[in-house]
C-alpha cells in the first residue's frame, strides 16, 4: 500500500522509543522506504543498529556525519520524504519545532521538509498538560503539523494519565491516512451503511441475515484514506472499526433508517451497503407469536425501503450507490432497481458465484449505471472498494 513512498521516522529520547521499532517494521511490511533519524538522547534507549536491521537503511544520527554520499544529507532526506512522523516526540523537541530551532539532524531536516509532518507527543502527564507544552503544540497545529493526541494510561514514571505514545498499529493508520492515496475526496462527506440488522421476535430471539459488513467497512476505510469525512452506520459485526471514521451503531432496520436518513442530508456520496431485512416481526405478544407443533407463526411487517427513500429525497449533486445481491437475472434485476430507486449506481453480484457475497474477503462486482456496465472481476473487497469509489467520483 505504501510502495514508492518514503516515510521519515524521527525518534527522540523517550522510553516509548521501543514502540518506534515496531512502527518501522509495520511500515516496511507495507513496502514503504523507512528512513530513521535519531536524536542523541534517543540512542540512550535504543541503538541505531536496531532500526537499520528493520528498515535496511542507515540510521541518521549526526548532522556532521561524513560517512555518506556527497550531498547535503538533511536536504536530501527532506526532499525524498512523503511524510515525517516523530514518534515519540519529547516536550523538548516539540518546543524546538514550534519555534524553528534547528540544532540537530532531526530538527534541521524537519525544518527543511515541505511534506506532511506529524508529531506524537509522549511524556510525563505533568509535562504534557503544562500550559507551555500545550501552547507549543497549538503553534505546531497552526503551522500545519498533525498532532496525535497521546493515549491515557500508566506511564513509565509510575503515574497514570495522558502521555503514553499510542500503539504502533494506530500510528501506522495515521501514516496511511495521510499518504496511502491521493486525497481526491478532500472536503467531501461520505455516508456508508454496512452490516446486518436484527429484528427482535421476542426478548430472546431475533431475525437477521448473513451480512458480515466487510464490503461496507472497506468502502468507509477507503473513503477515509482518500481524505473524506466519513460516517459509517453499522449493524452488529465482528469487524474492527476503522480509525478516523465516525461510527454509528444500530440494531434494527428502523434504527438504520433513522440514522441513514439523518446523516444523508449533508452527504456528498452515499453508499448503502447494509443488508437490511425486508421484514420485521410485529410487536411481540402472546397473540403475535405462537408455537404450532414444531413451527412458529410470526406476524411480519415490511420495513421501510431506505434506498428508495434516499433516491426520492436526494439533495442536488448527491451521488447515491446501492447494492444488489441476486441469485438469478442479476443484470436485469439490478437495472430495474437502479431505475426504481432513482440512484446513480448499483453494485451487483451473484451470490451463487464462488468468491462473492457474504462473509468472504473477496467479491465479484458489476457496476451498473444509467450509461454503462463495468465488470470488476474477482478481487479483494478492499480493491473493490477503491474501484467503486473511483466510479462514484466520475458520476459526481
What is the spatial order of strands in the main beta sheet? 12-11-8-13-18-19-20-21
Work out the number of β strands. Answer: 21
Rg value: 26 Å
Number of helices, counting only DSSP H or I runs of 4 residues or more: 13
What proportion of the residues is helical, as a percent range?
Answer: 25-40%
Beta-strand content estimate: 25-35%
Unreliable parts: 285-294
> On the 0-100 scale, what is the average pLDDT?
89
Tell the overall outline: elongated
| Overall tally of domains | 2
Q: Mind telling me the CATH class of the largest domain?
A: Alpha Beta
Helix- and strand-based class?
Answer: alpha/beta
Summarize the biggest pleated sheet.
Answer: 8 strands, mixed
* CATH architecture label of the largest domain: 3-Layer(aba) Sandwich
Q: What is the CATH H-level superfamily of the largest domain?
A: CoaB-like
The CATH topology annotation of the largest domain reads as: Rossmann fold
- Terminal residue distance: 26 Å
Folded structure, characterized:
This protein is an alpha/beta fold and 396 residues long. Helices cover 33% and strands 26% of the residues. The protein has 2 domains: 6-179, Flavin prenyltransferase-like (Rossmann fold), CATH 3.40.50.1950; 189-394, CoaB-like (Rossmann fold, 3-Layer(aba) Sandwich), CATH 3.40.50.10300. The chain is built from 13 helices and 21 strands. It has an 8-stranded mixed sheet with strand order 12-11-8-13-18-19-20-21, with helices on both faces. Strands 2-1-3-4-5 form a 5-stranded parallel sheet, sandwiched between helices. The longest helix has 14 residues, at 381-394. The chain starts with 5 loop residues before the first strand and ends with a helix. The model is unreliable at 285-294 (pLDDT under 50).
